[in-house]
Amino acid sequence: MTAETSQTLDRGLRVLKLLADTDHGLTVTELSNKLGVNRTVVYRLLATLEQHALVRRDLGGRARVGLGVLRLGRQVHPLVREAALPALRSLAEDIGATAHLTLVDGADALAVAVVEPTWTDYHVAYRAGFRHPLDRGAAGRAILTARQKSLADHPGYTLTQGELEAGACGAAAPLVGVSGVEGSVGVVMLADAVPERVGPRVLDAAREVADALR
């Protein structure tokens, strides 16, 4: 901590991060131990966060992330989209296919940014706001693959054929090393199979977007 920072705000943010990292919530005692502060401080922090709907407590007294965090999260999409657009434009023009940035939204993959190539005679129409299950399509499958503990034998990108649209294939690579953002960068094209150079190029684009978001 420095003279320019707020200890109370820092503790409140640490509470939110701790709760975000658990599926079953944390008790006041557990938070007290993790933060290294007494229970009275934790009670005050939770009460304040509850007033803003950022934290909720269940009947058993365990604290969990509140729905107010979702409202804040919606404002993240425009910022992420803006950071990703340069890499997506380059990818779309280079490959001649529709490029997209996809983020996790519950059990779905949600396209938050889409760039179509300018020089092709035809390409797949893919719109921001399009969603599909995580286990269908290259974008979602790339994210699920990134959740695995060991990726040593994986090329880093995922290829699919006809899972979301007949006659269309896709390639996607996950965003890696970006705190708080789970997503992928990919392309979708009308072809019998994804050309060999597309996978590595998509992987490079995903790294560019990840670097822009760090």
UniProtKB/TrEMBL annotation:
Q: Which InterPro entries match?
A: ArsR-like_HTH, GAF-like_dom_sf, HTH_MetabolicPath_Reg, Tscrpt_reg_IclR_C, Tscrpt_reg_IclR_N, WH-like_DNA-bd_sf, WH_DNA-bd_sf
Domain HTH iclR-type stretches: 6-67
In terms of SUPFAM superfamilies, this protein maps to:
GAF domain-like, Winged helix' DNA-binding domain
Keywords of this entry: DNA-binding, Transcription, Transcription regulation
Top-level taxon of the source organism: Bacteria
Keyword field contains Lyase: no
Show the Pfam families listed in the entry: HTH_IclR, IclR_C
Q: Where is the IclR-ED domain?
A: 68-214
Quick check: keyword rRNA processing in the entry? no
* CDD domains reported in the protein's UniProt record: HTH_ARSR (cd00090)
Q: Under which name does UniProt file this protein? A: Helix-turn-helix domain-containing protein
